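call fold(seq) -> tokens
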Amino acid sequence: MRCRELGSGRFLRDCAAAPRAGNRRVGGHRRTDPRPAGGDRPRVASAACREGRRQPSSCNVKVFLIKGIASFNALPRADAEEQLHACFANRVWTSRVAGGRPYKTFAQLLAAAELAWRDLSDAAWLEAFAAHPRIGEAGGHAPATSEREQSTVMEGSTATLTVLAAENREYEARFGHVFLVAASGRGADEVLAALRERMANDPATELRVAAAEQRKITRLRLEKLLNA
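ret:
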């Protein structure tokens, strides 16, 4: 029985009533269920879900992320690294994160990602930055993802986008790498203001700021990857 959202109490009772994988009785006889435990049926992920202290929608998200982790854990090593590379374009990082599988939860994967980031050189960060297109432009190593992330920016006026393009190049001349910002949901004017503010940074400070923005982008991409 699949869980249905018919109001909080009814949803949770239906989930609790969902048959478990394994042995079950059919017509008075015990029958082995061929479906593996933890299969495709949704499961309530925590006591908070079971007891009704969370809304069904939040329980669904939690279960879906866990299912995504299981699929990610099952990928061949090369495929896992390619999926990770679309989130963060550095092979040292992708190798370490892929090699840390299996992960039990999405949070555990993020912790491994953070740990792998700590040991990266400046050159590794610059390699990851270089895989991104300029803000307001198409391209990069994951063009469809970048286009989606920048969709709100691209709704800006022609005048603002023209200025943003010019100041992107001024930024690159000063710091030697693309201007990087977690652009999801941010408009062109807001991004332009952030660029201008960061132009006052010294190169070492700006590298740290850009790395923090890269981590934000990567976390969002990982969440979408495992929740797709």
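The beta strands are 23-26, 29-32.
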